[in-house]
Design brief:
Elements lengths: L7 E5 L4 H12 L3 E5 L13 H12 L3 E5 L6 H15 L4 E4 L14 H31 L6 E6 L2 H5 L5 H20 L5 E9 L3 H6 L20 H7 L11 E5 L2 E4 L20 H11 L9
Parallel strand pairs: 1-2, 1-4, 2-3, 4-5, 5-6, 6-7
Antiparallel strand pairs: 7-8
Helix pairs in contact: 1-2, 1-8, 3-4, 4-6
């Protein structure tokens, strides 16, 4: 018996890296999994159906149930086909993990509009299209009198929560995913849908490509950067056990689970009158002295 027995789960970007670990872990906990992946390159572009197919084969060999889907999550019709594939194959949809994404690290002066648009499209539009298509399905089920106990797990990033040098499009998209999570968690709270996000740390194609030494496997002992370390939290958030948790962002890596508390109100000065421009310097200086220490941007 697993914590996801009987649940039907979609994992986007499930063919490699973290997404692969999520898909395998869901299957190991009894879920029926739709592994979605275009099989593109780290920075976008290209297609390889084998990425998703190989994970499905691995799940089947372990005795689990899974199908592959190769649709583009940022395409409105493709996102609709993705939801339909889960329902057609397994009769329902219970959980969605929005993991698909791309990354290209460059100095800001070398960014192009095409890179910006492609990054925002995959991450933000991709999250929106899949969530909205899933929501429409769950809304129709609710209208038909069927109980809804749905889960959405969005994949943000430390880069989106604290900024990252050389990653302006990616950081912006991942920060937007965190905000989308907060907004929809509040709006959909009464619809039987929870909405949470995870900012993972692990060894993937992306991190190996840009920070190989930082994510290298240790010669001995606990492998902190093993992407499989993140999967248990993602699986728990997609299970029946997490129904009381929504609107939260967790930073997960190694053996660590942290609850992010960003966008909270810090120190305040209220003069109960309009400020004069010349007074602002002293006011801001006082606020900066009172603030909690913040983490520096990723490099």
């Amino acid at each position: 018996m697993g914590i996801c027995d009987g649940r039907v789960v979609i994992v986007t970007g499930g063919g490699r890296g973290l997404g692969r670990e999520y898909a395998l872990a869901y299957a190991a906990e009894g879920a029926k999994v739709v592994v979605n992946d275009l099989g593109g390159a780290v920075a976008g572009g290209g297609h390889d159906r084998n990425a998703a197919d190989s994970v499905v084969d691995e799940i089947h060999r372990a005795g689990g149930e899974a199908i592959a889907n190769h649709d583009d999550v940022a395409d409105w019709d493709g996102a609709g086909r993705l939801i339909d594939s889960a329902v057609s194959a397994f009769g329902r949809l219970d959980s969605v993990v929005n993991n698909a994404g791309i990354l290209k690290v460059l100095p800001f002066g070398e960014h192009t509009l095409e890179l910006w648009d492609a990054t925002i499209r995959v991450h933000l539009r991709g999250h929106y299209c899949v969530i909205r298509r899933a929501y429409d399905y769950w809304k129709a089920q609710r209208a038909a009198g069927n109980p809804i106990d749905a889960r959405v797990v969005n994949i943000s990033s430390n880069a989106g929560l604290q900024g990252a040098i050389g990653e302006a499009p990616y950081s912006t998209a991942k920060g937007g995913i965190a905000s989308l999570t907060l907004s929809l968690a509040a709006e959909l709270a009464g619809d039987g849908i929870t909405m949470n996000a995870v900012a993972p740390t692990g060894r993937t194609r992306m991190t190996v490509a840009y920070w190989p030494e930082a994510v290298a496997k240790a010669n001995s002992g606990f492998d902190y950067m093993d992407p499989a370390n993140v999967a248990p939290m993602v699986v728990w958030l997609g299970s029946n056990l997490s129904g009381h948790i929504t609107g939260q962002i967790f930073e997960v890596g190694g053996g660590s689970i942290a609850l992010a508390d960003g966008w909270d109100l810090g120190p305040v000065i209220d003069r109960q009158r309009k400020w004069e421009p010349a007074e602002i310097s002293d006011g801001v200086a006082l606020l900066m002295m009172r603030r909690r220490a913040t983490r520096p941007p990723w490099e």
